[in-house]
Amino acid sequence: MSIEMFVAGRYLRAKRRERFISLVTALSVVGVATGVAALVIAMAINNGVEQDLRRYLLGATAHVQLLEKSRQGITNWREFIKEFDDITNVAATAPALYGEVMIVGLLRSGFANLKGIEPDRELDVAGMLADLKEGSVDDLERADDFPGIILGSDLAEHVGVGMNHFVTVMNPQGEMTPWGPIPSEKRFRVAGIMESGFYLYDKAWAITTLKYTQQALNQPDVINAVEFKIDDLDQVEAVGGRLEAVAGNDFSATNWKEQNAHIFRALEVEKLVTAITIGLIMLVAGLNILTSLVMMVMEKRRDIAILKSLGASRTQVRKIFILQGIVIGATGTAAGLVLGHVAAWICNSYKLIPLEAEIYGLSYVPFAPRPIDAVLVGLAALLMSYLTTIYPSGSATRIAPAEVLRYE
Questions:
Q1: Quick check: 190 and 151 in contact, CB under 8 A?
Q2: pLDDT in tens, 342-362
Q3: What is the distance between the alpha carbons of residues 167 and 102, in angstroms, rounded to a whole number?
Q4: 96, 120, 158, 318 from 194: Cα distances, Å
């Protein structure tokens, strides 16, 4: 053990008459630990929310959508889709028909987005339907029964239906007559309940086969969107551009990032604000370290003078107080990292913080701490601890032994 470390350790173990300095030192450790733990927990929340939203969105939506600008529908869609078979990075393609309808159940009615799909191709593009809460995609079409429909779990609860109950799908546009549009309706049997975990989907989506959607919307043999799964998510913008080039000027491509950009922008702003706010807590902890070291230098002026008179260099004296600050910071950082990760694990495992799904889209606060965040937080805390030692360690080196020991 070096002489600097030995002396720094002795100074940290304050004597009885230095209890106040010891208390300030302990509060410094607690302050650093609190700041580090709070930052770890906050970043775990941000990462957890972002990961869950990303997983839900990618499971429920296509990576890229090609939409017709005129909204008249694509009639020759079978031949049209084949044009994209050789596009680089396109892993799967599926036709879709979207429309806004009203679902009438046993208790009440509710508006929904009706989506028509070809089940086999849809499963290749978006995986949400592969793991339904109840029922199966295979039950959408049975020869001896009503056409099937899959409802989001919150939508089904809202209209008061469950498996094998019947609902009426009403199309407000309906059929056009000389007196205006007359709403049309079609009867469906609930063949499945889907639960993505994302309220915006579970509350508003209903899915059936493309044929039955065309019938319900009075749009025979047309689609209004082509959906794509991409094998490299970093290439969604580039793939969208290639799809538009092949499809022509009457079509526009959009991707899952663009459709949900407002969500991820809000998360980035929240992450920045959180880091700044908790950074201020750590700054206060750093000031505590600074205060304790300044008081230590004032208390140990005589000891420092004796050390310098015995031959201790300015560098050695500086190291003593730098080591004190780093030990305080490292102890608080280690305690904060452990506390933060344990708290995040407990909260995530037991879902201790519930949320209103109607407001936040998630039923509970997810926590997902990342090793890289722990490393960055730890390094930032240690850097702060080091910076707080610069002034007091410099003050210690400027103590003149002759002046201090003159009357000893």
A1: yes
A2: 999 999 999 999 988 777 778
A3: 10
A4: 18, 17, 14, 65
